[in-house]
Design a protein that fits this description.
Blueprint (H helix, E strand, L loop, with lengths): L14 H4 L3 H24 L9 H14 L11 H24 L4 H23 L1 H15 L6 H25 L5 E3 L2 E4 L2 E4 L7 H17 L4 H33 L1 H30 L19
Antiparallel strand pairs: 1-2, 2-3
Length: 308
């Protein structure tokens, strides 16, 4: 049995090949630029999404890498009325979402409505131009791009509250494990009358969000298969929570033993160290999961386009 080679050479990007893509690429750029512009309110004013500025250029790069491996599928031209009607429906749907966002830029429901419309239109265009295999190959890139969109308010509050309680319980357990009778009182750690408050900013939701983005980024960058990518996401979430618990425990320990001034002095450094440790774990795990690495050189796999 003859197997197809794992590495597929770059397609011929002659004018005859990429010419039909030009108007659709223009439409995709317009839609995604508008979506990222809408999401940038959360990057500027949200507490957990400042990493969002890095997502658009990386998402564009990933799309370009996918596009290089696609062959344009010959299909009959769409009737003009279908094309015009589809563009009008798309424009009206996006305009309605943008109108709601202009009324309240912090309202995430219309933002996710806009994101859903843009993703559906993107997948439809890619299916039309490059086939079903290209659609499946593009899904991880879309998931990565969506990490820049702020979570819906109720979901975000649920995560913040749950993670804060989890950090408090885990930190209290670690203190007691080392013989220190620290108790959890509301959203505070208490030791012999000394209180340390664990705020929403210390819940770890920011780490969860950023490490989810990192996991999706490394999965696509390394060209991992589906199961390793899912494992990367799980490991990323566990790593984010674990490093945040260690950070909160360390800072509380400093506060109990050395006072508020020492706590303030180590606060930012502890956060940076926790992030670097977590990022190092993610890079190490992704490198070991990448079965396509040979002699330290990354081998990319491009899906062959088929009519679907």
């Amino acid at each position: 049995m003859i197997e197809a080679p794992a590495f597929q050479t770059r397609r011929d990007t002659s004018s005859a090949d990429y010419g039909p893509w030009i108007p659709w690429i223009g439409l995709l750029l317009a839609m995604w630029t508008q979506l990222f512009y809408s999401a940038s309110y959360g990057w500027l004013y949200g507490q957990y999404y400042d990493y969002g500025w890095y997502v658009p250029p990386l998402a564009v790069w990933f799309f370009y890498q996918k596009w290089r491996g696609w062959a344009t599928v010959p299909r009959p031209s769409l009737p003009r009325w279908v094309l015009i009607g589809g563009l009008l429906v798309l424009g009206l749907a996006l305009a309605s979402m943008r109108t709601l966002l202009r009324a309240d830029p912090a309202w995430t429901t219309p933002l996710w409505g806009q994101a859903g419309i843009v993703c559906a239109a993107t997948l439809l265009i890619v299916w039309r131009m490059a086939g079903k295999a290209a659609v499946f190959g593009l899904i991880p890139v879309l998931l990565f791009a969506l990490t820049a969109v702020r979570l819906q308010g109720t979901v975000e509050r649920f995560l913040v509250n749950g993670l804060t309680l989890g950090v408090l319980d885990a930190s209290g357990f670690i203190f007691r494990l080392f013989g220190r009778p620290v108790m959890v009182v509301g959203n505070q750690l208490e030791l012999m009358g000394e209180l340390v408050e664990v705020t929403e900013g210390c819940s770890g939701v920011r780490s969860i969000q950023s490490f989810l983005m990192v996991a999706l980024f490394l999965g696509e960058w390394m060209g991992l298969k589906i199961l390793p990518r899912l494992a990367m996401i799980g490991i990323g979430l566990i790593t984010a929570w674990g490093t945040n618990v260690m950070r909160a425990t360390f800072l509380a320990w400093i506060r109990f033993d050395q006072g508020q001034s020492a706590f303030d002095r180590y606060h930012d450094t502890a956060g940076m160290v926790a992030y670097l440790i977590g990022a190092g774990v993610m890079i190490w795990v992704s490198a070991h999961m990448d079965s396509e690495r040979k002699s330290g050189r990354l081998v990319r796999r491009h899906p062959e386009s088929r009519v679907g």
